[in-house]
Amino acid sequence: MTGIFQLLLLVIATLASEPSCPACSKYDYEEKVLERMIRMEFAFEKVLDENKAVSKSVQLDLTRIKEENEHLHATVDALKEQQEHAERRLISLMEEVERNQSSTLENVVTESNNTLKHISAAFNVIKDKVIVPEVYFHARSPQSTTLTTGEVIVYKTVETNQGNGYNATTGKFTAPTRGLYLFFMHTCTPYNKYSFLQIVKEGSLLIASVHRDSNNYVCSSSQVFVQLNDRESVWVQCSSGGSTTQLYDSSNYWSSFGGAIIHN
Ligand SMILES: *[C@@H]1O[C@H](CO)[C@@H](O)[C@H](O)[C@H]1NC(C)=O
Ligand SMILES: *[C@@H]1O[C@H](CO)[C@@H](O)[C@H](O)[C@H]1NC(C)=O
Ligand SMILES: *[C@@H]1O[C@H](CO)[C@@H](O)[C@H](O)[C@H]1NC(C)=O
Fold first, then answer.
1. How far, in Å, are 91, 125, 253 from residue 98 at the CA level?
2. 188 near 248, Cβ under 8 Å?
3. Among candidates 143, 247, 258, which has minimal Cα distance to 195?
4. Residue bearing the CA closest to ligand 1, atom 4
5. Smallest-distance ligand from the CA of 107
6. Any idea of the CA torsion for 46, 49, 50, 52, to the nearest 10 degrees?
């Protein structure tokens, strides 16, 4: 028994010492292959782990790039939106400016027009006050030389009638505009005949005169100022007629009636 145990120990000792002696083990080759395979597996695993890490990092990078890309897109979209908004605002502002300008122009024109109208009206008022209208007339040759009381003397031959105030049918002058007027009557009678004539305004006496030719070939004149309103009339009438009264009229000496506006 002790002998067998000692043999076994010897075998174990021999086996145990075999690896340190390459030439001594018949499993040496397999062991080496195995060992290499294990090393390769380790290396492979390491590479795999490294790959995994790299892949993970690449994945992370990709995700980050994707996110950045999305962010960039969002930023570009926002910028585009802002630009479109700015463009729309600019266009509407420009339209408003145009509208404002044209309405300002319209206001200026309307105001100028109104100012012009006011100035024009004021000018017309001043003009009417300052400018004396041309009104004057002179008519001669009584239609009838005989005289009856109250008769209106109609001087039938119109020498001048600026403003058409004198009417040769009625013998009356009607003021075409209000103002201060001067009237005269020039009277001639045949030898030894009388005339009682008056200048009246709407029938009211302005001036009264008598004329008698006691010496042959004499005439006389009467003048009067009077303020007339528009359309008021002035004429010559006989205050007393009869067989001793008569007017004279020839190409050498006229009986006439005339007047003019002095101031309006
Ligand atoms: C246009 O006119 C209105 C009213 O007068 C004014 O409030 C506005 O500021 C004007 N717009 C511009 C662009 O001038
Ligand atoms: C200006 O006034 C005149 C005369 O009153 C008128 O004929 C014209 O149409 C007016 N113009 C404007 C732009 O208002
Ligand atoms: C003169 O007066 C008469 C009678 O009132 C009238 O018929 C005529 O139209 C007048 N003439 C003028 C030029 O106004």
1. 10, 40, 80
2. yes
3. 247
4. 100
5. 2
6. 160
What local confidence, expressed as pLDDT, does residue 252 receive?
Answer: 86
Q: Hey, where are the domains in the chain?
A: 1-131, 136-263
The residue whose CA has the least distance to atom 10 of ligand 1 is 100
Minimal CA–CA distance to 24: which of 36, 32, 15, 11?
A: 15
C-alpha 83/C-alpha 264 separation (Å) is 74
Nearest partner of 177 among 136, 225, 229, judged by Cα: 229
Beta strands per DSSP E along 123-163: 136-142, 155-162
Mean pLDDT by 10 residues, the chain (264 residues): 52 50 73 92 92 92 95 96 97 94 93 95 88 94 95 97 98 97 96 95 96 86 98 97 92 93 92
- Specify the pTM: 0.55
Of 186, 197, 184, 193, the residue nearest 151 (C-alpha) = 197
Q: Which of 170, 172, 233 to mutate to test the pocket of ligand 3 (most atoms within 8 A of CB)?
A: 170
Answer whether 32's CB lies under 8 Å from 19's CB. Answer: no
Closest listed residue to residue 208, CA positions, set 217, 218, 198, 216:
198
Fold adopted by 136-263: Jelly Rolls (2.60.120)
- Enclosing H/E stretch for 11: helix 2-17
227 lines ligand 3 (CB under 6 A): no
- CA 109 to ligand 2: nearest atom: 13
| Model pLDDT, residue 213 | 87
**Edge to edge, what strands does the sheet with 256-263 contain?**
155-162, 136-142, 256-263, 179-188, 219-228
